[in-house]
Amino acid sequence: MEVISNRQAKLLGIMLAMDGMLVSLPNKVFKLAARDAWLAYLLAFPVVLILLWMLTKTTARFPGKNLFQIMVLRRPVIGRILALPMLLFIFLVILRDVRTLSEFVNIELLAYTPVPVISGLIVLAIVVTVNSRFEVVARMIEIWLPLTLAFIALIPVLLYPEFEIRHTLPMLEKGFGPVLQGSWYTIAAMGQILVLPFLLPSEQFGLRDGLYSLVITSVMMQWLNLCALLSMGSVIASKLQYPFHEMVRLIRVTDFLDRFELPLDMIYIPLMITKMAFFLYAFMFGMERIVPALHMDKLLLSFGACCFTFSFWFFRNASQLFNFNRTLSVLALMLEVILTGLLFVLLRPKQQSPPKSSAPGKT
């Protein structure tokens, strides 16, 4: 495992926690929580933080090792069995993200380009990125993630003429029930940051680093949701396929400066490819730990082809893809809670028996 800087680890955490909530997820949250959607992101923060504390506490018991290594060394049989659901989750996230990005590019940018062609180019970019080693993935995040955060921070400044406070009132009209339902999606998506302890030891990614990443993610997502709510209202946002993207289209500085979604796409697409490259690396790294005979360099291209094929086998159209977000969120929530609890209990360091005191010699 390559060594990355502490700053890169924090940026990785922000990317994993935030990137999955930027495209299709806001539509689901707005449908459930309506004008209180921003509270769903607020509720996700303490839940994910507790789960992250449990995982980082587990890795701290074994200095210099990540969870995949600890599971195999500490519990050779049970550890490999418990690693399989995590690898399956990573695999499903890769398939979903490949098709989601392909559909997004097809709808918003390349309407006349076949989706398989777009997906093939995306998978090729992912494979080339992973083949360039993990350090390259971390360096790519240092380029694209700060640009994304800067663009998000500028949205209220450019969009404030469209804000109407009436869209936010009345708050909690239907109680906390809809907010709790919306938080299922946000917890599952923000919980993708829990993949990091499986690759990075506690010295590289600890609880403080995770707290830093989660705070920035929570603030940015509430920021975006409030902007979408103030500018469009929850009724319109819940009926849009990509609410945040359509919100950016409302920005109009002059008659000739009204296509701000294009620079956003130029930043978001490379960031999404970087995220998928990270998940692909995580999957191959976990497979190498479970089956030492496998070699990532030899299987990388073949697995990329499998991702391309399965992304069309699992999702025949965009409707099935967006409906899958509900299923994946339920699976992710169960995995994040149950697997984290099991690892926290099972992966304890062996207690060393106290040395026996020798009998005193006779004088």
From TrEMBL:
The protein's name: Endospore germination permease
Organism, scientific name: Paenibacillus mesotrionivorans
